[in-house]
Design goal:
Elements (H helix, E strand, L loop, with lengths): L5 H11 L9 H17 L6 H16 L6 H12 L2 H10 L3 H12 L12 H9 L8 H13 L2 E5 L5 H15 L4 E6 L10 H6 L7 E4 L14 H8 L3 E5 L1 H7 L6 E6 L3 H7 L6 E5 L7
Parallel strand pairs: 1-2, 1-4, 2-3, 4-5
Antiparallel strand pairs: 5-6
Length: 293
Amino acid sequence: MERLRSECMTCILRKYMEDFPKDVEEKRKIEYLRTILSYVSNAPMSSSAPLIVRDITVLQKKMFGITNPYEEIKKYFNNVMLGYESRVRENIRKSSDPLKLAVQYAMIGNYIDFGAMREIDENELENMLDHASEISFDEAQFEKMRMDLTKCGRLTYMTDNCGEIVMDKILIETLKDIYPELVITVLVRGGAVLNDATMEDAVQIGLPEVVTVIPNGNAIAGTCIDELSDEAKRAVEEADILISKGQGNFETLRKCGLNVYYLFLCKCEMFARIFHVPKLTGIIVNDKCLKDE
């Protein structure tokens, strides 16, 4: 399966080529730059951007001691989204279609992405939340997911980013209300990478109080089945239906053959081209319905 894309290679280089401390000596800069270039140029076609980013993150820690530069911003955006929690939950409660609106809010949460976005405009985020019911997506794919949910016993939900995980929690609560017999397990990242949600984020926003949450066993900004812990792999393989949040999970899972529903906000030109939609359009699509690109 070919996953590597020219746009992703360009994006990685643009983001990481100058991502080192200001006081680094010239020799170390050159070593760092050459190593990143080798990661990108030598990546097999079966690789993906999240895997390359994982290697760069390890390199930054080894060379410069950079461990988790997003730690404080993650806490900040978790708190920002917790501030919307009561209002969002009330809007869903009043909605004529609670599941649809909860999905729309979950899509909007995916805007908080420091991997795909250069900056997060909080005014834009608030505006999208205020107009959540207006976000467009493929209604046929949504109805397919709704039908699957009525027939499934086990669901595994793969989270993506900080802040966004608050909207995921509300969607999961909605799923539990509508399908009380559905057994739900949530996967978070097993280690710090970009602003992706980890167990620390899940605890901060109260997710383990709602549902079973397990770390996936690695620090990749996506879900690579071969890299999952045994527990996380069982959660994926034994699920009747999976919900995969975010572009990184799509990049690493697409065409995996499982009953995965990808759910995210289209944030870059590559995805806009793949799905033939404007940027910031909601995307929901089942893995088995993906077309060849």
